[in-house]
Amino acid sequence: MSVIVITGGSRGIGACTAELCARRGMGVILTYKSNADSATAVVQRIQAAGGKAVALELDVADVSRFHSFRDAVQLALQANWEVAILGGLVNNAGHGLFNPLESVTEAQFDGLLNVHLKGPFFLTQALLPLMEEGASIVNLTSATTRVATAGVAPYAAFKGGLDVLTRYMAKEFGPRRIRANAVSPGAIRTELGGGLNDEFEALLASQTALGRVGEPEDVARVIALLLSEESGWINAQTIDVSGGYII
Q1: How far apart, in whole angstroms, are the C-alpha atoms of residue 112 and residue 155?
Q2: Whether residue 155 lies in the annotated active site
Q3: Which domain holds residue 37?
């Protein structure tokens, strides 16, 4: 059985991806920062559906904890699946911030940098020794790298950096046949950035070719595909999953 790590798996896109991947026969190690109850609920839903999952605490902004997290992953792999390797990593954890450039603080800037670029870089580095040949890495980026939206400049800049980092991962990990791709969601109905009110959702839907905002399941299906053998010849790509947002 292929076992994958999904960061930020206690809610939103991460939770939906964890449940979908489990239904497709993957073992799931999902992480949470502080909401242990939500993470436990995801694990319980997976188990009730016949799958197997484990929740581990992780702050992706705290690089100093990554080696101990790798040790915890190794223990979880052996205890729950009797394997020693990972089949995939989904760098999904993150948070949003709406603030114009002129008023972004250094602390806000650093917080977004650590979660959305520095964290995925060093977490991937830490878990790389556990990844099997042919494993798949999926990085969550954003349509804000393609469509400039006032108020989210630092978030978009670091997601753009993650797009570039994805291609370098694909290049450097290629000798081990490890693929790396990015998924770039448009407007999705999640809690990120405080969620969507009715007026804002209507505006975003009007700017989307398919006439609605996305659901977490829309993104999860693409992530699950990229983790599977069916996408074995897709590499170094950023896939826009937005229903045709501002085209």
Answers
A1: 6
A2: yes
A3: 3-241
